[in-house]
Every structure is written in C-alpha cells, then in structure tokens.
Amino acid sequence: MMTRRRTDSLYLSIARLLGVAFAVCMLPSAPAQTIIRGQSGAPPSLIGTDLAVLEAREPRKDLPCVVSPNKPLLGFDLRFHGTFDITVPMRELAGSENLLTIIFRVTADDSEKDPVYFTQKIRVPSIEEDAKGDAYLQGAFDIGEGKYKVDWLMRDRTERVCAFFWDAVAELPVKDKELDLELKPGEIAAVEPEQFMADPPANKPGGDQSLNVKVLVNFAPQNALASSLQPADTSALVSILRTIQRDPRISKVSLVAFNLQEQKVLYRQPTSDQIDFPAVGEALKSLQLGRVGIDKLKQKNSEGEFLGDLLRNELKGGGEATPDAVIIAGPKVMLDGNLPAESLKVVGEPSGPIFYLNYNLNPNQNPWRDTIGQAVRFFKGQEYTISRPRDLWFAVSEMVGRIVRWKAGKRSSANAALGGEYAVAVR
User: Does residue 2 surpass a pLDDT of 60?
Assistant: First the structure.
C-alpha cells in the first residue's frame, strides 16, 4: 500500500515537472534547465573548477545541501523522467541577492555517445540572516531505457560547492516491453518546457484503413473540489490527445475541449490533419474553476443538462466529415444523477463506435461507473480506465484496432448491398 501511494506521488511530481523543471519553495520559481551545447559538435566548455568537481565524483558540502534522487519513472508522455529533490538551509542563502548555479551531466553506461550537460541559474532574493527553515528545489531530465551516471553540482556567488553523484536505471517491466517509448535506449533529453507544443507534421500512409475521429476532452482536475487545473492533470490529458493523434492509422481528427464544472466549451477545432495544441493551451487560460453563472446555479442538475446537450450535439452523424468514431476522455464525472435515457435516445443510432478513456489515477478509491461512463454504456460503447502509461498505450492500440475492424465491416456490408442491387438490376 505504501509503494502504491509513493508511485502515485511520483507520477504527480513528474507531471508538475513537465511544466517547470525547477521550483523553489519560499524562493521565486525559475525557468527549466537547459542543455549546454559545444560548438560544432564538440563537448561544452565548462569553468575548470566545475569540470574538476564533476570529474572527481567526490561528494562535497561546502555549500550545505541534501540531494535526494528518485527512481526514473515512466510518464504518460512515454518518456522516463529522472527527478531529484534539493534541500538547502535558508540561513546558508542569507544576505543580499545570491545566485545559485546548477550544472549536471548525464552519461549513458552502454552508449558511445558523449554525456549531456545541463545548466540552471536561480536568483535568490535578499534573505534575513536569522531566516529559519529550508529552501526546496526540484530538478528533472528525460532518458530512454538504460543505466546512467549523474554527476551534479551547485555553487553560489562565493564559489561554495555542493556536489552529489548517483546512478539511475530506467527499465520497463517485462509486461510493458511492447510500449513504443519516445526516447531510444541511452538517449538523454531535457524535460519539455511547454506542455502544449505543436507536434511536428507527420506523414501517414492513408488508404482504406485511414481513420477520422472526433475527440471530446473534459479538461478538469482529478479532484473535483480543486480550484484550479493542475499541471499533473493537463499533462495526462494532453498525453492522451498526443497518443491518439500519433497513431499512424488516424489521419483526421476534430476536437471539442470542454469543462463540465464551468459548463462551457473551451475550444472547438474542426476536422484537421493535426490538433492545434498551442490553441488548446491558450483556450485553457480562460478556465476559472468554481465560477458558475447565477442562472446556471438556479437550474437543477445544470451540469447534467450541459453534458446531455453536448453529447446529443456531438454524437449525431451526418455530413461529409462524419467521424468514424467518437472518443471521450477525462477524469471521473460523478453527478448527482445519471443522464435520463430519454435525452440520449434523441441521438438515435450513433454513426460509429464510441469510446471513453477514463483518466483515473486511483481507480480503487472510486470503482463505480461515472456519468459519462453510463452514457457510453447506453450507446454500447467501450470504456477504458487510464491509470498508468501502459493503460493509455494499450487502450489506444486496442481502440484504434476496433475502429479499423468496424470500418472494414461497414465497407463490406456496403459492397454486399451494392452487389445485391446490381444482381436485381441484371434480372
């Protein structure tokens, strides 16, 4: 039980680090670490003393600090995240403005590639001499499967140094070996600083198996009582979208981003080759959880009515861009009452299969089917619980396979019907 709780905590920590690689408690937050690159492919140039500390690999505490590395953990973005926590007594930072410079390098054991160097500078505001407590920082880097050595140092303006060294092992369990990870074994990268970066253009084969899907995403926190959407939540939901879009069999996608608590459609993108992630990120800035209009508060079950209207409007088929399937994604939605069957019957027979990717980090705490799950069940759709990265990868693989088979069966039935009509005409 303790292991599961620690794992959940690490998943949340990693998701937070996807947005900001270093955060300081009681100090101003700092931008993410960057890779130090040499000129023309040569190793980067470091101050002689910094290089000597890294090469010596001997722990130092001229500047008192404690570095606590965590086991690399696979995120929903299918990248291993190596994370570490740093604690510095506030009294050690006392005085006028200080500057902390962090430099570390990561080296893959089983690779001929050169180590990758990272740097980070953190400006410390003026701190009183008798300041109590500790300053907390966090750091991260991304790696593929394999074994790595991490050589780390931090120095202040007075050239005091804290140095620490550790080994990191990133390994998939045997049951997850099929996962197609973002980074190759031995590959080292910086944490992506922006969750809503656009995906590069992809050349997909197309053909008869090429799919067009519509995705409805409820951008909401795991905790229904939370007053803001946490980076942990957006990271997982954006990863779900990227996994769907990157499947080679999906060539067209349309998107509806909404928030049930606010009862609002935040962003709508018509059928396109790719999801406009920067536009989604910009739209989420308008989200203000906990603020609902008085007119909606007066309505009984206004959230249920909003959800019912949304499903009725988006599940209806017709038109040239009718999707081959509708995919709904988001955290559990436990409304006071289920959607009335009468309101769903208005939709009629959906134009294609319906799927629900239920993002739920702790399914054992609430094993009951939620309101969206009940609606999907009404339409004989399929629900998947997404608690870990492997759940997402296998769910999307199986889901897309089901859509391909459904589309092939529909095409065969249409051809058979045409053949029958031809036979009647010949007679």
Answer: no
